[in-house]
Amino acid sequence: MRNRECAGLPGKTRRLCLIAFLTLATSAVGASAQAVPAVSSYYARTNTFSVFGAYSGDSSHILLGDAENRRLLNIGVAYGRKLLVNRMVNWQYNGELLPVALESDPVALYTYSWTSPTVYSESGTAVLTTPCIPGSGSFSTTDNGKTYSYSYTFTCSRQWTIGEGMSPVGFQWNFRPRRKLQPFFIGHGGYMYSTQPIPVPQAGSFNFTFDLGAGFELYRSKTRSVRAEYRYHHISNHNTANQNPGIDNGLFQVTYSFGR
Questions:
Q1: What ranges in 135-184 are assigned the alpha helix state H?
Q2: Which residues pair with 80 in a beta bridge?
Q3: pTM higher than 0.90, yes or no?
Q4: Strands 224-236 and 146-175
Q5: Which of 149, 188, 237, 251 could form an SS bridge with 231, CB 3.0 to 4.6 Å?
Q6: Closest CA to 76 of 200, 215, 197, 209
Q7: 3-state per-residue secondary structure call for 52-114
Q8: Over the stretch 48-102, which tens digit does the pLDDT of each residue have?
Q9: Beta-carbon contacts of residue 23 (< 8 Å; ≥ 6 apart)
């Protein structure tokens, strides 16, 4: 009903006509507003799926591990679920699966060549807890009239071990979730299984893992983002094997995430 159609009506009837016109106009505006979905002001997905790659070129005694010069290469996928979001923080569950978890140990290749009192050679390999240092030399001593002499050579190599892992317990905290660039903290607990004992032959093939990290997540849209982070990563068998030197790595990780 249009306003000019009420103009020719008697006074009381015209007022009722105008009230009806305003009611219809208000209802139309309300319907139009409801037809437009509300847009969230947060960059925070409810469900997140991710693929990532992580690498560390060295290990040292950062907190708990004693095995040095170990390398890690991880390729995996992750799932995240939003638990709580407000203007300060986006708290999420985060679990990771590692179908490819590679660990590299330093290996010394040694050769001993005896020249006295008999002539023979001995060679082999040894996985070291400390970094491998190449070298060569000779040694000679006399005991009870006998002379013992030999020369030696050490060369270095690496041994890569294939494994897989899972971190079913994990959480991520993104701060300033209304911004496209968000700082975050992350942490996980899980396990790693390898095809042979790591980081030394007397250790175990089954190891426990945990990590703590921080970085930045850049949202390219409401549903897609890229993460870059640094983690303290620890591997050890919790004294379930004869030796447990443990491995501490500083791990760099890049993650691509999507979801809704």
A1: none
A2: 48, 94
A3: no
A4: unpaired
A5: 251
A6: 209
A7: EEEEECCECCCCCCCECCCEEEEEEEEEEEEEEECCCEEEEEEEEEEEEEEEEEEEEEEEEEE
A8: 999 999 999 999 999 999 999 999 999 999 999 999 999 999 999 999 999 999 9
A9: none
